[in-house]
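Many groups now describe folds with learned vocabularies. In that spirit, our science desk offers one protein's residues alongside their backbone shape tokens.
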Amino acid sequence: MDITIFHNTRCGTSRTTLEAIRATGVEPRVVDYLAQPPTRDELKDLIARAGLQVRDAVRSKEALFKELGLDDPATTDDALLDAMVAHPILINRPFVVTTKGVRLCRPSELVQEIL
């Protein structure tokens, strides 16, 4: 099975998800999305394929979220996408892509749905 994880090594949920994938015997393609962020179109596609709204994919716990005024409910999806591309730390993680679909694996157990 071909699996890609958009991973942040400092995130416990991301590390747990990566371990769950490896426990299946598959070595996924690991993308350090902070160093290699997805393009705006790729990010928009991941979010849509995961069945999420753009706001669901933003890390609202990051201080930068509030500093940029993204907590304003009037902030558009386009503005949120632009902010996530400009500041990848704002992308919630981990996104996992398999042949069975895409999930934002928070909690990490959600990865089981697509393995």
Remarks:
- The helical segments are 12-22, 40-49, 63-67, 77-86.
